[in-house]
């Protein structure tokens, strides 16, 4: 009799564990984005003060032995200007890490969306492999549709061009298929996420 109790008890416990594991998990936008972003190989640094952004930027440059970065954003130049790093405002040198903003952070897949506001006429694939992106928590959206709607609403009448996303945050040399040749959007990407809400 004792044997049947143990067997039945183990069966009900395993059924309960399966039911618990089968429950869908609902994450907030920021948790969902961070989870997907890190799973794709992105490096994420959360900041609550501009001094933390400056300190993290300095540490990223030290970690990678970067003595120069390229930046075209006037507001970001103020942040980077306080560091002992040479700032290049020309995007044509594709060997220098690129410090930029973005349009949106897409929670359901961990992508970062850019436009001509950040990239000018350059394609993502033609820019440096190393990106440092400054973004705010207010730029989080659920999916691509919400991101494109927000861009259309925010820039009504003057919608930016060259809208594209970084989808992979690890550089995989030699793994390009002929379908992806010359259009790889993989970047070694650091995200400095600033809490603004």
UniProtKB/TrEMBL annotation:
Alphabetized InterPro entries for the sequence: NagB/RpiA_transferase-like (IPR037171)
Protein name as catalogued: LUD domain-containing protein
